[in-house]
């Protein structure tokens, strides 16, 4: 099943298998190296958009190149990425996303600690009011 990523409302948050890694993006562009078959970001990833739709991505393929100055600005050879979906998207509740992010953050505290503004990451997550606000915390 192939769909255009324009159906996703950005920003988006991506999770690798078993939520081992998490990243959030304003646009679906990435360093060309993630298109490698060895990249854990190139298969079985899940994306949740800012409208609460969860997309199941089987793999990624290059959609188009960015201009050289855009790649330099991003420190790497960046490309627009087109996801290949493995199934139809399904809705996720805001509370489900909060729980999922908290679980990931608690397993990877050292990675996310710099985002803490003194309130504690769990409290910061709890105080968000929308999918977009929660996802933007991690951009």
**In percent terms, what proportion of residues is strand?**
25-35%
Helix content: 25-40%
Spans of at least 5 consecutive residues with low confidence: 1-6
Euclidean distance between termini CA atoms: 28 Å
Large-scale geometry = globular
Query: What's the number of extended β-strand segments?
Result: 6
Rg from Cα? 15 Å
**Number of structural domains:** 2
H-E order: EEEEEHEHHHH
Report the biggest beta sheet as strand number plus sense, adding barrel if it closes: 6 strands, antiparallel
Global structural class: alpha+beta
What's the mean pLDDT score?
Answer: 85
Widest β-sheet, arrangement of strands: 2-1-4-5-6-3
Number of helices: 5
Question: What do you see in this structure?
Answer:
This protein is α+β, with helices and mostly antiparallel strands. The protein has 2 domains: 5-91, no CATH class; 94-136, no CATH class. It is built from 5 helices and 6 strands. It has helices at residues 68-73, 94-107, 109-112, 121-126, 131-136, and strands at residues 12-15, 22-25, 29-31, 43-49, 53-65, 78-91. It has a 6-stranded antiparallel β-sheet with strand order 2-1-4-5-6-3. β1 and β2 (22-25) form a beta hairpin. The protein is globular, with a radius of gyration of 15 Å. The protein starts with 11 loop residues before the first strand and ends with a helix.
Short note summarizing the structure:
The chain is of the alpha+beta class. It is 26% helix and 32% strand.
């Amino acid at each position: 099943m192939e769909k255009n990523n324009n159906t996703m409302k950005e920003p988006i948050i991506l999770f690798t298998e078993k939520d081992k890694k998490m990243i959030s993006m304003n646009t679906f562009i990435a360093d060309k190296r993630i298109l490698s078959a060895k990249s854990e970001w190139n298969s079985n990833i899940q994306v949740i958009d800012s409208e609460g739709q969860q997309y199941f991505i089987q793999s990624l393929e290059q959609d188009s190149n960015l201009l050289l100055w855009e790649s330099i600005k991003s420190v790497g050879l960046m490309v627009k990425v087109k996801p290949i979906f493995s199934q139809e998207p399904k809705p996720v509740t805001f509370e489900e996303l909060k729980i999922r992010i908290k679980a990931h953050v608690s397993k990877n505290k050292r990675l996310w600690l710099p985002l803490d503004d003194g309130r504690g990451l769990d409290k910061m997550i709890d105080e968000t009011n929308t999918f977009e606000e929660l996802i933007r915390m991690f951009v």
